[in-house]
Amino acid sequence: MDKVEETFPLRYYFGFRALDYNKIRAYTDNLSKERMISKFQFGTMFRGWNGKQELTVKIWNNDVLDHMDGHGMMMDELFLFNKVDLKGIPKIIGCSDDTNNPCAIIYDLSVMDTLHNLIPSGNFCWRDRIKVALGIALAIKSFHLLKWPFTIRNVSATHIMCEKDFTPWLCDFGLINGGLINPVRYKYDEQTGYPGYVDPYFIDTGSCSEKTDVYAYGVLLLSLITKRVFNDEKDEDPDFLRKWAEKEFNGKRKPGTRRPTLVDLSLKLDVHFDPKDGHRITLMAMQCIKYDPDGRPEMDEVVRTLRGLYVVENHINECVLNEALERHLSKA
To answer: What domain range includes position 190?
Structure first.
């Protein structure tokens, strides 16, 4: 990688160092396909290297943003990371400086892949799937339990990055609302969330709350246990997973029999799988995706349910996102 000379005075946004866009491009070998991790709702994620460490670089795509304010999204995220003590989000190293170029943020994060790409994998075992489920639940809960709560609004497997040990990180906040963030810069009906994770009650009423995130988390949980994800190149209906799950879960069954577990057969054969866990997590996922937000659980209840699973009780050290997040939540 060629060295990029810095020829402008150092600048900082909310305490984060601003870098020349050409320097950021150099981190990613000029945005090469080999460095690309995946697309996200408003741009592309890349693996980066600054000569000392592996990085993750998020670049907003002006063509995708259309009428939306990418620079404003970046400023909101920098403000959020600077002002709020949350541990479910990666550390920021810096950001882009020139508003004439695409906006970018550099994370101190070495990524294995997005959760979206990992979900169908046969190498993603039951224990690690529950580790991810609990980690994301803890992170979302921490947003909701702040004195001034946030609604993330675009929780999805595409916006979650996993390290090699399957530690998950939320990596996009382009639609975040509430807390100390300025009022949203667009109408709710213009952007509602990531396809497949959008709350139907939100679409019908325009009413947004923490339960909007609970719905998206329910879809995420279903994806983790069924190994199914929405693929916009193959699936015509973004809501195919919810509709399939409701049909399977609410289908006819013999009197006295339990509702079916929706866990994929290959995961039921996993050494760490317990049938009771399968039923409990299926029921929790179905409660999260109920149409009426009042019928959905709070994230605190979701976390308690996950902690009560056999796999968590027997592998708790592997299923906690990190001790700092635990301490933060215990004080909330």
So the answer is: 113-326
